[in-house]
Design a protein that fits this description.
By secondary structure, this protein is of the alpha/beta class. The protein has helices at 2-55, 82-94, 105-114, 128-133, 175-182, 195-203, 214-223, 251-266, 269-277, and strands spanning 57-62, 65-66, 70-72, 79-80, 97-102, 119-120, 134-136, 141-150, 167-170, 186-189, 209-213, 229-231, 237-242, 245-247. It has two domains: 51-140 and 243-277, Periplasmic binding protein-like II (D-Maltodextrin-Binding Protein, domain 2), CATH 3.40.190; 143-239, D-Maltodextrin-Binding Protein, domain 2 (3-Layer(aba) Sandwich), CATH 3.40.190. It contains nine helices and 14 strands.
Length: 292
């Protein structure tokens, strides 16, 4: 009997030891997997920043058609704008060249994911959907949405509910077009065209409304006074924040960009650039309004 119990004890001890070894192995595997995952993330981040350092440049996507964020000066034809000059200042302080690649918004997001560009700037709003897919820098612009309509009759629009069935001009993936969809607009999609095309079409009744950023719309109207259109006097909606967008996990690039942005805010450079490009308005400071 004693031998029988001893045999069982030995079997139990061996079984327990085996289980401990298996659990330890599993734990080590999970730890190694976690380390590997973290290592891959760090490696990916380092690779992007290493590429930037090696090439001595940051490749930035922008439209070149969105006044005053990113556009070509009518006299010099040079690319300029609020966000373009912020990027140039970042490049200067990081001692890196900034190479701009011009494209539409849809192309920017695709190019970020494919690694063709490192960053994108084009009045790109921070949204939960975009944050799930991309990484954003700290903000440099605070704004809200308005509506450009015809002066004579406000294009038949007195509230956001009146957008149903109206022809809204814009880019397919813009946040403002999504607002229009939510209220039942008929979408009129444009590619990477200049502001005068959008504005003229509302004036000529080809479209009814342009839903977009207040500050951009205000300046666009001032640039084309010949059109019989206006910013709707009472419609204000969708407070929002803009920043530089980049691919996920570019941690070192994000750190470098945010460090310079903090300096630009602290020394007043961003405020000065804002007033230069937005007619004296400081869009780098959050404002309080009543919104729909």
């Amino acid at each position: 009997m004693r031998n029988k119990f001893q045999f069982r004890a030995i079997i139990l001890s061996v079984f327990t030891l085996a289980m401990l070894l298996i659990l330890t192995a599993c734990g080590n595997t999970e730890d190694e997997g976690a380390k590997s995952s973290n290592g891959n993330k760090e490696k990916a981040s380092a690779t992007v920043w290493d590429k930037v350092i090696e090439n001595k440049e940051i490749v930035v996507a922008t439209s070149g058609t969105l006044y005053p964020a990113s556009y070509h000066d009518s006299d010099t034809e040079e690319l300029t704008g609020y966000e373009v000059e912020i990027m140039r200042e970042i490049g200067k302080r990081l001692e890196l060249d900034i190479r701009f690649v011009e494209m539409g918004l849809d192309g920017m997001l695709t190019s970020l994911n494919s690694g063709q560009v490192d960053l994108a700037v084009n009045d790109i709003e921070i949204t939960p959907e975009r944050e799930a897919k991309f990484t954003f820098s700290d903000p440099y612009k605070y704004s809200f949405g308005t509506a450009i309509v015809r002066k004579a009759d406000h294009s038949g629009i007195e509230s956001l509910e009146d957008l149903k069935g109206k022809k809204a001009a814009g880019a397919a993936t813009s946040v403002y077009m999504q607002v229009g969809r939510d209220y039942g607009v008929e979408e009129v999609i444009y590619d990477n065209v200049t502001n005068d095309v959008y504005l003229r079409d509302v004036d000529l009744k080809r479209t009814d409304v342009i839903l977009n950023d207040y500050y951009l719309q205000k300046l666009a109207l001032a640039a084309f006074p010949e059109f019989e259109i206006m910013i709707h006097p009472t419609i204000k909606y969708h407070p929002n924040v803009q920043a530089i967008i980049m691919k996920k996990d570019n941690d070192e690039l994000l750190k470098q960009v945010n460090t310079v942005l903090a300096d630009l805010h602290a020394d007043g450079t961003i405020s000065t650039l804002s007033k230069e490009f937005f007619g004296g308005e400081d869009v780098s400071v959050e404002q309080a309004f009543d919104f729909e």
